[in-house]
Amino acid sequence: MPPVSLLPRYDQQNGWLEILGPQPEPTVLTGDLVVDHVVIGAGYGGLAVARRLAELDPAAEIVLVEADRIGNNAAGRCSGFIIDHAHNIRSKGFKEDTENAKRQIALNRAGIDWLEEIVTANGIDCDWQRVGKTHAAGGEKGARVLQGFAESLDAIDEEYETLDAEQLKAKFGTGFYQYGIHCPHSVIAQPAQLAIGLAESLPENVRVFENSAVTDFELGPPHVLRTERGTLTTPSLVIAANGFGEGFGLFKNRLLPLITWGSMTRPMTADEVEALGGEDDYGIIPAHPAGTTVRRLPDNRILIRNQYTFSRSSDARAGMAKVVKVHEKSFRNRYPMLPDLEFEYSWGGALSLSRNGAGVCGKVGDGLWSTMAYQGVGMAKGTISGKFLAEHMMGEVDPLMDLVLGGPKPSRNFPDPFNRWGVAINARWRRWQAGIEE
Predict the structure, then answer these.
(1) pLDDT value at position 81?
(2) What pLDDT score does 260 carry?
(3) In the predicted model, what is the mean pLDDT of residues 70-99?
(4) 381 to each of 35, 48, 173, 302, 437, how far by Cα in Å?
(5) Residue 318 has what DSSP assignment?
(6) Phi and psi of 345, rounded to 5°?
(7) How far is CA 134 from the centre of its chain?
(8) What angle do CA 97, 353, 216 make, to 5 degrees?
(9) Across 31-107, where does the E strand assignment appear?
(10) Which end of the chain has the least Cβ crowding within 10 Å, N or C?
């Protein structure tokens, strides 16, 4: 039985999870189970696959297995934007292919709508707010980027509102931003709390095991998966492990596993809240893709997110000090009125891309399926991809399904270490391009 060649190594400083307080003890896989379906990976794709399979086949026994804690995995480490517009970090606009852009937005909105149904029906407390997203620029270069974005939105008849410096200061408290575009249809949420709530509200025929990394496997069918304390045997296996799918031999050298980095402050004092002003809960997406994402949270913390690095194991411990220095500079540029507000948590989270922007969703072997590589839109696109994959497995059809099941495969990468070097060079180039927006 060959070993899984790639396993996650997550730090324990994920602010989104830590601020929730102590979590219940995990249910760990022990013993040997034979079930109808196994889903590996409890991110948004895996959670969606497991839920939809259980809804469509309520008599089936389904297992969802996660290597870490749900909420501490990649799903709980993002910025909490559930976005509708294409957010590929390579994307320059929608004008070149308006019909495809409209369908991609419809796809993401289908994911948002389904998530909202689940959140509402199950009373998931995750600070869910359909307040949209504001793209904001601190300088002229960023403003030009956003003006091009506005032209792209005009080309596909999307509604938006432009904001000037005075309006942005009233909204965010800081006078850093000079030009903004508000798009109304996205959602902001607490990502760790959302992922935990989605897992806890799964149908009764889904069993969830955490801290149960698959260490060895044998593909069949039947497929046999071994963890430290148990085994799973199934005729139907879904690998929703994102970049870690390579550890199971899938799409070797076709995915780009990255870490994106975040830092979260302690809660502001009453004096600091007064000094800042502005709204008490918002999300800012940078004008430049290599710029800084910002969230102000309901408990008066501020999140800063920028930087990305190459890491096959998503080991977020190496290089943390260097990243935090960049976060500190980005924070001080935006919030000079808060000189004593310090970061309480800093962490890294996994992100999987492909060079040609193609994702993975569909059948990849006999009784073997996969969904991963969402190009930075994991909350919305991961959710809808997982839903459509489960429906496809059960013979269901949807007009948007071909957008995730069809299309090209991820293109082949350069061999390592050229991938690592390429990502590092690209990151430096983008930081230089971003300028003040970092």
Answers:
(1) 95
(2) 87
(3) 76
(4) 27, 11, 32, 26, 26
(5) T
(6) -135, 145
(7) 18
(8) 140
(9) 31-34, 37-40, 62-65, 81-82
(10) N
| β-bridge partners, 357 | none
Average pLDDT, the chain: 90
Residues 6 or more apart in contact with residue 123 via CB below 8 angstroms: none
- Work out the average pLDDT over 400-418: 81
What tokens appear for 378 in the block? 């994991």
pLDDT in tens, 223-246: 999 999 999 999 999 999 987 888
- If we measure between CA atoms, which residue out of 323, 399, 404, 309 comes closest to residue 362? 404
Highest mean pLDDT among 4-13, 35-44, 255-264, 317-326: 35-44
Q: Which amino acid is at 281?
A: D
Location of structure tokens 């891309």: 353
Report which secondary-structure segment, H or E, holds 134.
Answer: strand 133-137
Q: Which amino acid, one-letter code, is at 385? A: S
216-218 and 223-226 as β-strands: parallel, antiparallel, unpaired? antiparallel
Q: What is the DSSP string of 193-234?
A: HHHHHHHHTS-TTEEEE-S----EEE-SSSEEEE-SSEEEEE
DSSP label at residue 267 = P
**pTM summary value:** 0.94
* Omega cis (within 30) before 184: no
CB 89 within 8 A of CB 434: no
Average pLDDT for 349-353: 81
Rounded CA separation 65/213 (Å): 8
Tell me if 188 sits within 8 A of 119, measured CB to CB.
no
| High-pLDDT (> 70) share of the chain, % | 92
